[in-house]
Amino acid sequence: MRLQGKVGIVTAGASGMGRAGATRFIKEGAAVAIVDLDGGRAEALAGRLRAGGAKVLAIAGDLRDDGFARDIVARTAAQFGQLDFVWNHVGHPGPAAVEGVDMAQYELAMDLNLRSVLVTTEAAIPHLRARGGGALLFTASVAGLTGSAYSPIYSMAKFGVVGFVRSLAKRLARDHIRVNAVCPGLTDTPMLRTFVARPDQAHTANQHPEMVVRETVKTVPFRRPPSRTRSPTRRCSCCRTRRPTSRGSHWRSTGR
Ligand SMILES: NC(=O)c1ccc[n+]([C@@H]2O[C@H](COP(=O)([O-])OP(=O)(O)OC[C@H]3O[C@@H](n4cnc5c(N)ncnc54)[C@H](O)[C@@H]3O)[C@@H](O)[C@H]2O)c1
C-alpha cells in the first residue's frame, strides 16, 4: 500500500491510461478524484471502485475551461481534507498538418496539453506546500523527447510539458514537491485511434483506423503497443510523496 492515506487527482481519468492509473492508485490506498469530460464514464468507474470500498470522487467537466481546471483542486481538497498528488494526464493529438494547419485544432492541442495542466498545477501547489510536500506527475510522450514527423504540433506541446516538468522540479525541490513526466509511446487506448484517423493526416487518409493501428504496431519490436493496463507501476512510484529520488525525470514506456 504505497499510497496509503494519500489523496490525489487524475485528469482524463475515465479511460485508457488514466483509468488504469487511477485504479492502481486506489489499490495502493489513495483516495482519488477522477476528472473527465465524460461524466458518465467517470461516475461509472467511481461507482465500481466505491463498491470495493475505495474513496473516489468523480468530477465531470471540460478542462479547457480555466475555472473548471482550477476548481477540481478545491473540490478534491474539500471532499477529502487534503491533497498530496496530481497526475496531469489530459492531452490531445491536435492537428497532423503544418501546411494548411487547422488553428482550431492547434488551440485544442495547446489548451489540453499545456494551458489546462498549468492552471491545475497553479491551483495545486499551495495545497501540496501546506502538506509539507507532494508529487506532480505529467503525461508527455516520446513525441516530446524525440519529435514526431507525423505530429509536429503535438511534439511542440509535449516538448513544452517536458520543459515545464524539468523547470518545476528545480523550482519546487525545496518545497519537497516531486515533479516528473511519463512519456508513453504508442499505447492501445481510444486516443491511438484519434491519432491515426485525423482528417488532415495525409498518409492515413481513407484507411480504417484499426487497420492503421495494426500496421503501425508492426514497427514496435514486440509487435504490439504497451497495453493501457501494463504501465501504472511507474505512475504509482512517481506519485509517492516521500521517495527522495527521481525529480524532473521523464520515463519512457514505448515497447521499443
Ligand atoms: N495513447 C497513446 O498512444 C498515447 C501516447 C503518448 C501519450 N499519450 C498521452 O496520454 C494522454 C491520453 O491518454 P490515453 O491514451 O489514456 O487516452 P484515452 O483516449 O483513453 O482517454 C482520454 C480521456 O480524456 C478525456 N478528455 C478529453 N478531452 C477532455 C477535456 N477537454 N476535459 C477533460 N477530459 C477530457 C476523454 O473523455 C477520455 O476519457 C494524453 O496526454 C496523450 O497525449 C497517449
The proportion of strand residues reads 5-15%
Q: Give the tally of structural domains.
A: 1
Report how far apart the termini are: 30 Å
Tell me the number of strands: 7
Shape-level CATH architecture: 3-Layer(aba) Sandwich
Major sheet: order of its strands? 3-2-1-4-5-6-7
Radius of gyration (Å): 18 Å
Question: How would you spell out the order of helices and strands?
Answer: EHEHEHEHEHHEHHHE
Give the distinct bound molecules: nicotinamide-adenine-dinucleotide
SS class: alpha/beta
Task: Please tell me the overall pLDDT.
Answer: 90
**Text of the CATH class:** Alpha Beta
Helix coverage percent: 40-55%
Supply the number of helical segments: 9
Query: Would you give the CATH topology?
Result: Rossmann fold
Oligomer: single chain
Give an account of the 3D structure:
The chain has a single domain, classed as NAD(P)-binding Rossmann-like Domain (Rossmann fold), CATH 3.40.50. The longest helix has 28 residues. With 256 residues, it is α/β, with parallel strands linked by helices. The protein is built from nine helices and seven strands, in the order E-H-E-H-E-H-E-H-E-H-H-E-H-H-H-E. It is 45% helix and 15% strand. The site of nicotinamide-adenine-dinucleotide has 25 residues, from helix 1 and helix 7.
